[in-house]
């Protein structure tokens, strides 16, 4: 039984502008190349002219890779995880597990639908009878988050599901699932002076510290770092473009301590890397302008932190690329999709542990997963 405080809300924000009436997910153009550079202030990703010409000549949908049709109807949000050929998904009466090799056979794992599954597919968060639980899908163990309200919002803080992170308005908590040890940051006391309000997004956990992005007392958007052991709060990254112009969406730490994030930095929309040692922000990919609106870049990072998928848009289509991340540069980039997407790639992609292969949901209009496409890097 874990011990925690009573959270409410702290709802996650929708990332990007990708939801809507959508067409099929497609994997395309094995062998086509793109050129990428990583210089701050320059256009950091350039699609070569021969690839552009070839893309325009193709008809949609374009699919490459092993496409495996689903045997039953599963809604987009109910497909929870695909990893090492194993699929986890919700039915009305609980979480089920099946294999891509034999989708006709499904095993029931829990009696409650999961809100989220850890990235490694081992643990599931769910709400039952007014309480929050974390269940181990391998050994059947279940851990109750004691004194946590049913309508609160918690997410896994790490890939293995060892920690959950969430909070009430003005308070952020981090709970170790099996021991119940809790750490929390009182946002009202440490970051808010009580003058002009505050807002913040989903917190992150990295290397023992809690990170929160937000704006406090009408100041500029920024990311703050809280070190529980030192009981210390410090500015980690500020955004120079002003609160109305700069914002952050999804951010993840890389193995070397750099921060990968998408959003708007210094009034430029795109995908960036921040080096806390040099304080430099490097643009990897800039966003686009569609119908006079700035459209961002979404991404999905591999477990090793060295490979990624990223997702851009133009007036006609969505575009998906895979690339390797070398410091502050993209290398060995390849164009793999031209089509409409049902959601951002961060919600469509699932990586295998080797980081050399991944899966994508194929979701036609209507939001039902039609198939899973297996792809190798």
UniProtKB/TrEMBL annotation:
<feature type="signal peptide">
    <location>
        <begin position="1"/>
        <end position="36"/>
    </location>
</feature>
<dbReference type="InterPro" id="IPR011042">
    <property type="entry name" value="6-blade_b-propeller_TolB-like"/>
</dbReference>
<protein>
    <recommendedName>
        <fullName>WD40 repeat protein</fullName>
    </recommendedName>
</protein>
<keyword id="KW-0732">Signal</keyword>
């Amino acid at each position: 039984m874990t011990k925690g405080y009573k959270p409410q809300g702290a709802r996650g924000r929708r990332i990007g502008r990708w939801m809507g009436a959508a067409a099929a997910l497609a994997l395309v153009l094995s062998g086509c190349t793109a050129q990428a550079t990583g210089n701050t202030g320059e256009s950091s990703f350039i699609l070569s002219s021969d690839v552009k010409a070839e893309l325009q000549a193709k008809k949609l949908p374009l699919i490459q890779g092993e496409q495996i049709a689903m045997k039953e109807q599963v809604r987009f949000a109910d497909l929870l995880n695909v990893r090492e050929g194993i699929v986890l998904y919700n039915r009305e009466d609980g979480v089920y597990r099946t294999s891509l090799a034999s989708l006709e056979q499904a095993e029931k794992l829990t009696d409650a639908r999961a809100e989220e599954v850890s990235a490694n597919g081992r643990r599931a968060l769910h709400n039952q009878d007014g309480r929050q639980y974390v269940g181990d899908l391998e050994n059947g163990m279940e851990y109750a988050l004691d004194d946590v309200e049913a309508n609160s919002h918690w997410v896994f803080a790490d890939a293995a599901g060892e920690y959950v992170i969430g909070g009430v308005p003005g308070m952020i908590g981090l709970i170790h699932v099996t021991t119940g040890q809790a750490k929390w940051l009182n946002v009202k006391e440490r970051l808010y002076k009580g003058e002009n309000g505050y807002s913040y997004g989903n917190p992150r956990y990295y290397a023992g510290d809690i990170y929160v992005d937000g704006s406090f007392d009408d100041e500029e958007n920024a990311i703050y770092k809280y070190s529980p052991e030192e009981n210390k709060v410090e500015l980690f990254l500020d955004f120079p473009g002003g609160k109305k112009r700069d914002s952050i969406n999804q951010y993840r730490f890389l193995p070397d301590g750099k921060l990968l994030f998408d959003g708007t930095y210094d009034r430029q929309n795109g995908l960036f890397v921040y080096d806390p040692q040099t304080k430099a922000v490097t643009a990897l990919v800039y966003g686009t302008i569609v119908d006079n609106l700035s459209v961002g870049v979404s991404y999905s990072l591999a477990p090793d932190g060295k490979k990624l998928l990223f997702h851009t848009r133009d007036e006609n289509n969505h575009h998906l690329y895979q690339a390797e991340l070398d410091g502050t540069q993209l290398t060995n980039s390849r164009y793999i999709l031209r089509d409409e997407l049902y959601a951002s790639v961060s919600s469509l992609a699932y990586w295998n542990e080797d980081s050399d292969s991944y899966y994508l949901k194929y979701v036609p209009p209507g939001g039902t997963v039609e198939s899973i496409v297996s792809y190798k890097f």
